[in-house]
Model the fold of this input.
Amino acid sequence: MNLHDAPIDNPTLSTTQPRVVIVGGGFGGLFATRALAGAPVSVTLIDKRNYHLFRPMLYQVATGLLSADEIAGPLRSILNRHQNVEVLLDEVSGIDTEKRLVHLKQHGVPYDFLVLATGIQYNYFGHEDWRRAAPGLESLDDADLIRGKILLAFEHAEEIAALDQADTEKIRKLLTFVLVGAGTVGVEMASTLAEMSRMALAHDFRHIDPRSAGILLYEAAPRVLPTFPEVLSARAQRHLESLGVKVYTNTRVTNVDADGIVEWRARSGRHGVVECGRACISRRPMARSGHGQVGKDYRELRPFRCRGTLRFLRLATRRTSWRRRAICWA
Done:
């Protein structure tokens, strides 16, 4: 028998009740699991990570304002009181709808009902090669990587200014940060980067002025936060500009390379090239519609609102100010 065809048997869960398998421990998966707690079903939650991540606050980890444990909680601890729920740490490799079997790396999990809540992925507009030069922000690992890159840019600029003061162009490039996509993540990242350079790091260096860092935000749509009401978009753009962020709407990025070269083209026909120290992609394919792409064998579910994770939001908002919190990348 193939390992994928060997189902996992768990004696702690009822074998007579219908089995619900939920793939993904994000907002949708966690809310669905908690909604079924105590119901006459056996629930199996599968995720490739053993924690629930409050992703709306992920950008604050990427900029050093919050630590990882402040926006992540162990799934087992969240669900340990629900006797009809089990959590499996594994990655789904396929689904056999005829045999009603979820394939993991080395096992198979049978199901009577299946909920797919696998989340979303960043959209590189067909340019997957951009991923190496401009990481997205969808996990704690991404946040750690981006935080390290941002702080290293300031450190390298300080070293060049101290030892080779003539290379001002290299310093300017290192202190230029480009964000592609002015959705919620892009706007939040841009504003937090601006506050970080203008306030938190303003007096930490001797040879460079972090307040001179250039933060550029590009959006192909006519306005930032295009899915929000226009009055909120206008207010958000005014706030960004008051922080010193340069906002370019109706402007599509056409190329990003590993040397920090970002090429753009506006709808008016204008085009240009920006040399930057770091670039970040903040556009997601499902941000506009809120609906996932599902195959013909699955029905599309309405989005969930995960009230059960609001405690993470309350925890995350109990934060100290930029001036009081230490920022490090080690």
